[in-house]
Every structure is written in structure tokens, then in C-alpha cells.
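Render this sequence as a predicted structure.
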Amino acid sequence: MFWQGYSRAHAGVKTGYDMADHRSPAIILHSPQLGENIGAAARVMRNFGLTDLRLVTPRDGWPNPAADTMSAGAFDAGVTVSVHETLQDALEGITWLAAATARLRGIEKRVGDAQGAAQVAHERLGAGKSAIMFGAEKSGLPNDAVAVADFLMTYPVDVDFKSLNLAQAVCVFCAEWGKLAIGARQDEGDNKASLGDLAPRDELYRMFEHFEEELERAGYFFPPEKTALMKDNLRAALIRADWTQQEVQTFRGAIKALALGRARRGSSVKTDRVAVIGSGPAGLMAAEVLSEAGVGVDVYEAMPSAGRKFLMAGKSGLNISHTGSEHDFLMRYHDYSGLFPDYIGSFGPDQVTAWMEDLGMRRMSARRGGSFPNR
């Protein structure tokens, strides 16, 4: 990821009416082609108080001199640009997403115009960060991007001439946002969410992946050639729920419980109680998973206290697992690597990280080839 910062913004210089707000919607340009359009979009964003511009795989890379020329100083005046390799990365921290599209794609979504999208985004100022997503100049948004949106934003253009420039499309929304942002501003207390904190898109993506992985294990995706469409439809249905972080954790716990229950039904060994020898990280994890599945657990430890390795993690952090490929992970076992592929394939680094997130450590960072919970 590349972050672009600008000196006037860093120096605290204010330009015009100061209505920019870190909670204001982000503008996401998915695979933009022309730097001129990026610059023009940044210019109109700053006109109406929007400063968070996110680019997903811009064709000509970033920074782009053509964008700087067309921006008319918008970058100096506070518009910041972040560049992302995937849409999932660009949606980090986003709790509500509108997709600009001329075609409704046959997916059941709430549909409205720019005024409607701006109104919803403004009403949600106290309930997390929103984003408005626009597609490439030539082809628009791909179906998998539309599938994860909460709202489809379409413009009432003439049916005989629907062509609209990317920067112009951004301008239509920004102008509607400006009507609300410049008008009477609501007090902070008026926009407080009545529920818990809404789940950002990165947490929803991990939930989707967890759910789809277990569906694949159960043989749900059939025939195989329809897998992508079935996943898009599932995500489109789930996204409408407006998930809170607690709801995401609860749902992932339910997925895990169903998966464990399926494994127990398929096992020839029936038991109501298990002894776990050792209360290190692996032993405590086994005890937690077994207990959640309804099995009684007795943990035996020779040392004076449990979880001593957790307590001794020190200032370097707590290394949860490995961030490389499954092959790289197996190679760390050297001569014994051939003994473990089935086990690692069933419960590898990704599953360990997901388990930690279910315990409440939702933010993980990768460094030195390991996965660590953020402080």
C-alpha cells in the first residue's frame, strides 16, 4: 500500500469552508485508467469537503503527474491518496458501501440516486465510515465488487446517451454530499449508533472467507463452475444485515460450532470427557475448542501455572502463527514435513488466526514472517 501525503495539509493550512471531516465518505476509484480523471475527481472532492481518495490498481500507477495537474491543488489542500492492490484492502475500516453502476446486475440491493446515497452516508456519520465506489472508465465495476456493496447508486441519465465521464460521475455525488455538509450541521450526539460498533469491511471479508471455506468442505458449491456466482449471491445477501462487530464474532462462532459438530458426528470415537496434557498455547486452544463443542475437559499441567509461554511473550509480541504459504509452513518441520500435510491443510495458519480473532483479537499484523496481535 502506498500513502500520499501533502505539505499544506500536514501544516494545518485550511482552504475555503472547513467542512472536511475524517468521518466523511471515502471515494474509491476501482481500476481507474487516466490520471486526468483521478486529478479531476480529487479536485471536485475537495470542493465539497471530501479528502479520502482510495485507488485500487490504477492502470498507470501512482503518483501520476497528469493527476496532479488536473487536481488544481486539491492534493496540497488536503486530499490524501492511498493505493491498494485489492478492493478488500481498500475497504478496511468501511462500514457502509455504495457502488455507482449504470446496470443493476440482477442482484437484489437497495437502489437510489446520488441524493439518496449522500443522505444515507450523512445519516451514518456517527455509525462508522462510508465509501462511494466508482468503476473503470471503460468497463465500470466488476460483479464481485458490486456484490459486496450495500447500495447501488445510479443516475437518471438519458437512455439514448448514457456515457458519463468518471470524474463527472464523482462530481454528481460530491455535489449532493456538499448540500448536506455545508448545511446545518448536526450535533455529535444526534448521530450516535443505537447498536454496537459496526463491523468494518475487512472483518466482513474474513467472515465471508470463513463461511465459504466451511461450505466448500461440506460440498455446498456444486456444480464447480457456478462457485463464483454462488459466493457473490451469498455475500450480497449477507451484506444487507449491517453487521456489528459483535454479530460478526457471534456468526463466526456459530460457523465454527457447526464445523466442529460435523467433525464429531463423523468420528468413530464417542466421548463426553477429554484429558488435555499440558496447558501451553496448544493445550489451552484444544481445551477451548473441545469445551465449545460440548465436551468436558480436564487440563493437567506439571508447572505451577498455566499458559506460561503466553505470560513470557515479552516486549517482542506474541507470535500467533506463520504468514507464508502452506508449503513454506510445512518446510519449517524439515525432515518431518511429510507427517503433517493433512493436519496443516485442515487447520493451518489461517485457521489459527481466525480462532484468535474469534477470541476478540480482531486486528492482526504481519512482521518477520509471523502473525502478531496488534497492541
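Summary. The CA atoms of residues 186 and 308 lie 51 Å apart. Residues 1-20, 186-193 have pLDDT under 50 and may be disordered.
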